[in-house]
Design goal:
Layout: E1 7-13, E2 26-32, E3 35-37, E4 40-45, E5 49-54, E6 62-65, E7 83-87, E8 92-97, E9 107-113, H1 118-122, E10 127-130, E11 136-151, E12 157-172, E13 179-187, E14 190-199
Parallel strand pairs: 2-5, 4-9
Antiparallel strand pairs: 1-14, 2-3, 5-7, 6-8, 8-9, 10-11, 11-12, 11-13, 13-14
Amino acid sequence: MFRKLQGIFLLGFSSFAILPQSFATIHNVTVSNNVFTPSTITNAVVGDTIKWTWAASGHDVATTSTPSGATAISTGIQNSGFTFEYKIAVAGTYAYKCTPHASMGMVGGFTAAPLTSVEEVAKKPFTVAVNTTGNSFTLSGNVRSLTMDLLDLNGRKINSYQLSNTQNTTFDISALSQGIYILSIYADGKHYSEKLSVIR
């Protein structure tokens, strides 16, 4: 049965800093026997939260390197069911380990992009517009390198795209369910975000 997409509205935001608090992403990590899942997170932004949930006892989370000015993490050994949240305040790359099991490869890390200033957004090198077909959008602009993640409001990645030397590229979104999504876009080394509202 054909379902016509009645309206898709794309609204640019300067960064997650000016999005409502509900748009800040929680990135979930499971702490289980000798492994963090996922072990690496690359789509975090300053203001997001990393949340670890212990599925097994006898593990900790302890940072081994953090960006300058960031607060270190040291949870101590915890049991199954324990949770710990860390709100990212400083952009950069973080590395951590489970102290008793690091030698077994139980290490992890995350990278957080800085917030994009209002001035940078005003100079955004691309535009995003809904096509007349109603089931796709086009990204237009001279961008040398672009990585774009389509996320739901829980931060779960639905799709990911990597482009180079792009000017006009169309993306099919006809399979999306009704709701609100976030486009997390890295274009030529800078981070931008777009709110994607799908209404049927």
